[in-house]
Amino acid sequence: MGARLGGVTRTYHHGNLRDALLARAEEQLATDGVDGISLRSLARDLGVSHAAPARHFRDKQALLDALALVGFRRLDDGLARAVTEAGGAFDDRLRGLGRAYARFAIAHPRLLEVMYAGKHHPEASAELLAVARRGLGLVADAVDTGQRAGAVRDGDPDHLALLLFAAVHGVAQLATGDLLDGEPAADLLDDLLETCLRGLAAPTPAG
Amino acid sequence: MGARLGGVTRTYHHGNLRDALLARAEEQLATDGVDGISLRSLARDLGVSHAAPARHFRDKQALLDALALVGFRRLDDGLARAVTEAGGAFDDRLRGLGRAYARFAIAHPRLLEVMYAGKHHPEASAELLAVARRGLGLVADAVDTGQRAGAVRDGDPDHLALLLFAAVHGVAQLATGDLLDGEPAADLLDDLLETCLRGLAAPTPAG
DNA sequence: TACCCATGTTGTCAACGACAACATGGGCGC
DNA sequence: GCGCCCATGTTGTCGTTGACAACATGGGTA
Prior knowledge:
Two copies of one chain form a homodimer.
Chain A: E1 3-5, E2 8-10, H1 17-32, H2 39-46, H3 60-85, H4 90-107, H5 109-116, H6 122-148, H7 157-176, H8 185-200
Antiparallel strand pairs in A: 1-2
Helix pairs in contact in A: 1-2, 3-4, 3-5, 3-6, 4-6, 4-7, 4-8, 6-7, 7-8
The structure holds a DNA duplex (30 and 30 nucleotides).
């Protein structure tokens, strides 16, 4: 088969309906929010019958779960890139990670919402958690580097990473909810990051 | 009228349907999540017709907005209580505020979700923002106190308050989303709070 | 006393998620 | 090279829901 529609080779009827659904769902999500997504409207948009999506996602929730997974993967990519671009200094890496997270949140607020929605199916939850943890690992690595250099106070790197992550996540949440009183998210984030870095600094040897 | 049902005086048919709807909606929210709330099921539970709720909430969203308002008011009460119980020291006040916030978040995770959902009607948004800002004011007051005592670094108290709020909010979000790896939320919160307080400390006069 | 409006009711509609029964055609085993 | 099977897609249907319109009622007030 494979009809040409709009320059893109479509191989529906035995092809890539699943990906097409995800792509269209993400568009819909960005413009109309989670409630704007309906399996039936997705099917209509893609020219398939209303029951076709069920072959790929047993549930509406299953589709949202898949969307969340896409989001986490993309987020992870962004974080990984931030690390490589940040050079070796642990604090620059942490700053880069924080900014990358905020950038993602502001660029894809609705997607972030789906990613952190507590409604995922149990199986999906496990997978999502695993991917989320990968991002956290990048933070922990940077913290560990800081500790080895004697610049960061002692403590379980994972714990400290979670702490930093929570702070950045909080800013991102407020930013996407437009609860910042017009304060630029970047400013608040930088300030919070510096504050935390200062708070996490190893005690300077007395004298 | 006023029929006695279950020991509570009900004056439906000219009485308190609105409050009853809110109360029942909050129960439903706690047990089944936002999607578990349907205007029709609420009406059924309260023994009124399916269209009765529309007299009090033009929309399903309007009901959720009202629920959010209830939540913010209750949160504000908790925060205010925390301040009075914390004594005069600014840092104790901040700790008390942070813990009160986390306590609320963990006790009412779904409600918090509704409170921060970005879908509110515009009129409701304004009111919600006003109430939310009131809580933030308590934080700013404590920061201001710390600054006057020379213990907190310079800077707009509202800005610093927002910074602290974001951090605490982040922890609360992760906690309600069960994303803490089993780490007790209280521990993480305390740790983050201490870190931020340390980071916000005024530079000690050289020497 | 009579009217009006707040509140509640019945009826209806379109959209949706979910499910069941059925169709089809491509790839794989033989 | 042929035919069968299953992945994928279709049609049909059901119950639920939110929203709206037209109608009922009764309490407070002019």
